[in-house]
Amino acid sequence: MVDLKGQYKSIKNTVDHSIQEVLNTSAYINGPKVHQFQKNLENYLGVKHVIPCANGTDALQIAMMGLGLNPGDEVITSDFTFAATVEVIALLNLTPVLVDVDPNDFNIDIEAVKKAITPKTKAIIPVHLFGQCANMEALMKIAEAHNLYVIEDNAQGIGADYIYSNGKKQKSGTIGHVASTSFFPSKNLGCYGDGGAIFTNDDDLAHTLRGIVNHGMYKRYHHDVVGVNSRLDSIQAAVLDAKLPHLDAYNKARRSAARKYNKAFANHPKIETPKTGTCCEDYSDSCNCHVFHQYTLKVKGVDRDALVKHLNDNAIPCGVYYPIPLHKQKAYTNSSYQEADFKVTNQLIKEVISLPMHTELDDEQIAFITNKVLEFINE
Q: What pTM, to 2 d.p., does this model score?
């Protein structure tokens, strides 16, 4: 699904040098490389504060801890996403409220969010799924009207632009009150292990978050808030800092691959290619609203699981993201959920399939992949 070795070879000298700097200083925790990467990412995103941490799941948990949410508070999020989003809500003894998604971009459904709000609702977590932003303009209006926090789960969307109705652009993860991201190796900006970060423009919140990630300490052995041990190590920061200048080029390469996939599948009655806003129907280089962490098709009237087997039999990796909705997961079942409220998600889990998507895809590989997909669907 990703070619991390090929990507490494293209930037080997830069990465090796950056790692060697850490080895030379032996500053492995909170060293200069962590602070350097933090500042460079702040500049890239145009956000006041980046708080690095150990992984993306921690980033979500720490963001909610920093907001001071209390046990029993309700947090609305998407039913169609990875479990980490709801996992941390439950870990903090908050109440997850799962809602359906939009059938076109797979992101949280705005009308479903409105319907789910109760007096106990305190926050909304939109997930920028597969590399495209949720409707942040609408969500921020809802949050303002109901005095709610918006916590962006930007694990799959780093580098994407959100485009407002007036044409203004803003980087994903910088719009809500706070955001989290993951630097898992397969992400658009990935390290060579685990890593994550939290973003915010709120000075007071940033101060609280910096204490939480380091055992609640601002001064050694003085624990001012309840914290955790969640730090981005210096070697991972060195890798990320070496890769950050290439992020826009990586995302451009992903959009280029998506265009080629789309061309191969164009107008096929059984294949629905990913949709974006009208700003970039062809994922043009002038538009960055989709960064294609995944390239996800919907197949209609096709045995999706048999297609997965066919591709695997031909040495083509593929993924089903996600085969089981969160409201049907044993850990998160709730008697209040009604299947009628999850019509889109319940359909998507039968139809979606994600094809290889990374920066090193070439025309020969894309042709082989698309031909094998069409071979199965047309037989």
A: 0.95
